[in-house]
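W.,

You were right to be curious about this one. When I first looked at the sequence I had no strong expectations either way, so I just let the prediction run and decided to look at it fresh. Below is the sequence, 425 residues in total, followed by the output.
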Amino acid sequence: MSVPAAARHEPADVALLTGPEAGTMLAGALGAEGGSLVDWHVHTVHHRPGAGVTVGYTATVERRAPDGDGRVRTEEYLCATTARLSHGAGPGLVRLEQEGGGPAVHLWRHPADPELPALPVACDAAALSRRLGAPVTVELLAYRPTRRAVLRVRRAEEPAVAAYLKVVRPSGAHVFVDRHRMLASAGVPAPQVLRADDDGLVLLAEGQGTPLANLLARGLGRTAPSVLTALLRTLDTLPAAALDLPRRPAWSERAQHYAHAAATVLPQHAARARALADGIDELLAVSDPGPVVPTHGDFYEANVLMDPQEGVHSVTALLDVDAVGPGHRADDLACLLGHISVLPHLAPSTYPHVPDVLEQWTRACEQLVDPVTLHARCAGVVLSLVAGARRSDGGQWRADAEGRLARAEGWLARGRELLAQRGPH
């Protein structure tokens, strides 16, 4: 699979949106409305290979005081993207053309996201209280510009009880809600939909249980096999109706795209990333993915809550079901194993027990699906995580990114060994 022509601009787009020219663009956009940029820093970089680059900035802005007496400074969150938007420039959205024929850059001030019209209401406790008909507090937990946001909501009179708002694109809201309801009716422990509005604001009940990530940090010990059994049992409960949903490509099937993203953040290792993608493609071509079955699509430790009681191993909540649909069991297993395999690079002191669990679970999963395809797909998952290691807050990230790249190479190497053991094919 080749990288689309649009994606070839993306290293330059990353450089543009994270370099000095970004400050010039931000200052120009603010100046058009009477503000001046005092200071700015890159906060996050979101790179979707083939779909553009989006960057979030923390900025100090100075403008005339509301009463007209003097000037005041405020801290604001600004965004810029080279992604194609479904809405043209309008109030709060500035469009800038790049010299040399690059994609247009759109800039806006959070929460006025052009693709998430419900976000301003979701981020405003007073407006959200009016929408929900009860006084609430709200806390932003995650924001992926133009894609989605997650917020925690608490009723003012019951602060101990939480629900979660997911703000999605209006065009995808009905599919998102239908997927949740389909799973709940099949007995899958997906969060209950409490409210769904046409502008993309969806209120979900809080999932109960302890994140699998926390259990992995504590160490599973002799319970590791029974925990894996509980995870597999949950995948088995995914309903056949999921086969009628749109299929999303697996990470391994987009290895060339993720190699491109990895090379963008680690240009000195671009050849390694390309070789990884080529190797993954080669193994996928000669291995058996297994039958098409209902899959979760993003099955890893952060999206699984479990009963914390010792001796009770059951999944109590399955989160982030946006990608549920047809696929291969090997991809859900690869997602689980691949994500777990990078935890020691992400936080080595937090996950000292992971290597033992990973070895046990990998051996067990090799008995469930073709081992060659499993390792190739694990390599694809980990390759997709390399670019995400990049941090713009001043923290060290290169060792983590390089560790992920090496981990992907390890998965691929083992897949090749297993293939060689089969002899001529």
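Here's what jumped out at me. The chain has a mean pLDDT of 90. And, maybe more interesting for your project: The chain is about 40% helix and 25% strand.

Coffee later to discuss?

I.
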